[in-house]
Design a protein that fits this description.
7-stranded mixed sheet; 3-stranded parallel sheet; single chain; alpha/beta; 11 helices; 322 residues
Length: 322
């Protein structure tokens, strides 16, 4: 009797396991949605649309971008975390979504570490410290001197959480006090700096690079460990005498937690192939982005490492958003 019961259990399990295997083997066979937690036109949206178009070509299924801005990426993140873990919904978080928000909010509507299945890191991008051309400082050292002479009244603009964290890390390393002026996006922040309303800005290199190359702001340093290929003549903060401020922002692809590993592997193979293509590299490189395709495991480790490192900066600066 026991033998018969075991056989029946095995027979009942066979259709389920076969169905699971078939789902992974035939993926994708219907439209894929990529959730972007920002409005159309920004750097994250550009990465998503660059990949979506080529995914659609290679897999012969529609791949659409679903822009869900707001809440410092919380709205898009919650939607993605609650989606079915079948590979047909992807999400493009930035570093603040998965590595900063847990230190900034007492409670999140998603689990930044365990709520997603990492697929691949896509790009990294340094922050740039820049000033209005009328500002006397032409180096980081001179800016520090200027900040000290203004007795904490020198202001800097930021339009996103990573830029704010970079600014606070700079203040800590330079031992200066500055007034942080928050904006709802890097566009409005840069507009006011270009207009002379705020003298200093920390911004991601991507949205800032056009203003730098047009001479509308003067770059003093980048926050990456090495100089950016897009601005080879601009020193790093470390070269300028400030250590411990090696911050870069990143964008990656994740799926909801529980997505089949075989499907994650398929997504990783195709997405990394696409972003490594010369055409994609050139397009994103022109925006100050460095392509850094990774394995799911490498991306997961990046998230964990940055959560620890950036969490310490946020705690030291006393930044809270609720």
């Amino acid at each position: 009797m026991k033998l018969i019961q075991n056989l029946l259990l095995c027979l009942l399990a066979l259709p389920l396991s076969a169905a699971a295997g078939t789902a992974a083997d035939t993926f994708p066979e219907r439209p894929i949605r990529i959730i972007v937690p920002f409005p159309p036109g920004g750097g994250t949206d550009t990465v998503a649309r660059s990949v979506a178009a080529k995914l659609s070509e290679s897999w012969n299924v529609p791949v659409t971008v679903d822009n869900r801005p707001g809440g410092n990426t919380l709205i898009g993140a919650e939607m993605a975390a609650r989606a079915a873990p079948d590979g047909y919904t992807l999400f493009l978080p930035i570093d603040s979504t998965l590595a900063m928000n847990q230190s900034l909010y007492a409670k999140l509507p998603y689990d930044p570490i365990n709520g997603f299945a990492p697929v691949s890191l896509a790009i990294t991008m340094p922050m740039v410290l820049a000033v209005h051309p009328s500002v006397e400082a032409r180096s980081v050292k001179e800016l520090i001197g200027l900040a000290k002479s203004r007795d904490g009244k020198l202001a800097y603009a930021h339009g996103a959480l990573p830029a704010q964290v970079a600014g606070e890390a700079f203040k800590s390393a330079a031992k200066v006090d500055m007034v942080a002026v928050p904006y709802k996006g890097s566009g409005p922040a840069m507009t006011d700096v270009v207009g002379g309303q705020v003298p200093v800005i920390f911004d991601a290199l991507g949205p800032a690079i056009a203003f730098v190359k047009a001479g509308k702001v003067r770059p003093l340093a980048v926050t990456s460990a090495k100089r950016s290929p897009s601005l080879p003549d601009v020193p790093t903060l470390a070269e300028s005498g400030l250590t411990g401020v090696g911050l870069v922002t990143w964008i990656g692809f994740v799926a909801p937690a529980g997505t089949d590993r075989t499907i994650v592997a398929k997504l990783n193979t195709e997405i990394t192939r696409i972003i490594k293509q010369p055409e994609t590299r050139e397009k994103l490189g022109a925006m100050g982005m460095d392509v850094v395709a990774s394995s799911p495991e490498q991306f997961k480790q990046t998230i964990k490492d940055d959560a620890t490192k950036l969490g310490a900066v946020i705690k030291a600066a006393g930044i809270k958003l609720d």
